[in-house]
Structures are given as structure tokens and as C-alpha cells.
Specification:
- The protein is an alpha+beta fold.
- The protein is built from one helix and four strands, in the order βαβββ.
- It has one domain (5-75): Eukaryotic RPB6 RNA polymerase subunit (Alpha-Beta Complex).
- A hairpin with a 3-residue loop joins β3 and β4 (66-75).
- The longest helix has 11 residues, at 19-29.
- The chain is globular and about 45 Å long.
Amino acid sequence: MSVNIQSHVLVPQHEILDEASAKKVLMKYGVDRSKLPKIKKSDAALPEGAKIGDIIQITRKSPTAGVSLYYRVVVE
């Protein structure tokens, strides 16, 4: 029996940002990729096709904020 971690109810949505969206996020927060929190390439929650250096947007449901966005950069 195999479980798809990405579609599990407890795993928040992970999506790869395109380069234009990634630049907007970096500008908004005034950081470069090296300053973002990291996520390993081997993480089972990563979307298929994620490459080292990609920025991942994680959408989490929050009881107080409704929805909150987090960003991670893929590392080896």
C-alpha cells in the first residue's frame, strides 16, 4: 500500500513559484534566496519537478488568520 503524502489532509499545499512570482516575494520581504527558510529536495511534500533553488509557497490554514503563506527555498 502506497500513500501519496502530497494529497494527505494534514499536509499543507506546496507549489513551485514561477520566476516572476519568486522575484515579487523576494522584493516584498527584502531578502534573497539564501535568507529564506530551507526545504530539502528529498522532502516528500515537495511537488514533482521541484529543483534546487526553486521557491516553494506553502499555503496553511490558520484558525486565526484564515490562510497564511510561507516560503521555502529548495536545497540539496
